[in-house]
Design a protein that fits this description.
Low-confidence stretches: none
Largest sheet: 6 strands, mixed
Order of helices and strands: HEHEHEHHEHEEHEEEEHH
Structural class: alpha/beta
Shape: globular
Radius of gyration: 19 Å
Number of strands: 10
Distance between the termini: 45 Å
Oligomer: single chain
CATH class of the largest domain: Alpha Beta
Strand order of the largest sheet: 3-2-1-4-6-5
Number of domains: 2
CATH superfamily of the largest domain: HUPs
Strand content: 5-15%
CATH topology of the largest domain: Rossmann fold
Length: 312
Amino acid sequence: MTSYHLDHLQYLETEAIHIMREVAGEFERPALLFSGGKDSICLLRLAEKAFRPAEIPMPFLNVETGHEFPELLEFRDRRAKELGAKLIVRTVDEAIKKGTAHPAPGEISRNKLQIPVLLGAIEEFRFDCAIGGARRDEEKARAKERFFSFRDAFGQWDPKAQRPEIWNLYNARLNSGENMRVFPLSNWTEMDVWEYIKKENLEVPNIYFSHERECFRRGGQWLPVPPPHSNATKPDPFAGGRPKANEPVKKLVVRVRTIADMISTGMIESKVFKVDDIITEIAAARVTERGSRADDKVSEAAMEDRKKAGYF
């Protein structure tokens, strides 16, 4: 009699594929949140393994802040095209013009403004489920969430009203207007993601590897200098994220560990050019992945407050 033993990555992969298939079986109009970052890249491979040779039975959805790295947008569009998937993009700029998103005076980050854009897209396309790449090791609020994360008719999340998940059984029942966020990578870590990328030989955006970039020091970390705005007749969306007079610009060899927008993604000085090098660097790191995100340093409750309001 032959017995099979799954190693750590195989177990995580099998669990995530099971979650993907549960979504396809339980929901009528799911969407997969795809930004082009490393976690959503793993989601794409898991979706391929869950559903191929059939088409992936859900469109890709991305919310743009208007502050994205050009490299990330190019990668996102190209991968969606290569997979033959429908890519739906909704932007913060469009929401501001329509009056559905309202920037707070003096606030540079557009993270909170992603909330009405995401909720608007869910309502527009009547999505009843959105698959995301969040992991429990990212920060405290993520650790309170389960695989199937229920959101009420206003898109809000209540950490005290999470549904039990016993014996791999998931309660996907929804009333009209409610939706579910599903996180197949919940039990993965940053190290697991990179080891899976290595195992599957997955392509990632080049900003994850060391490259030369102009940066300036702010809040104890290096931030990238945004590119010049292409339309001089409009206000520069990066104006708040540009270096000040007392913040000299330096050209450094850097990379990113986690990608937000260009005004909140901290760059780390590093010389790694292969996935093996990244894995070695992470193993020795003493700062968490989210420690390089300027937008998460406002307060420990920042992410939880955003999630309660409908964030990813």
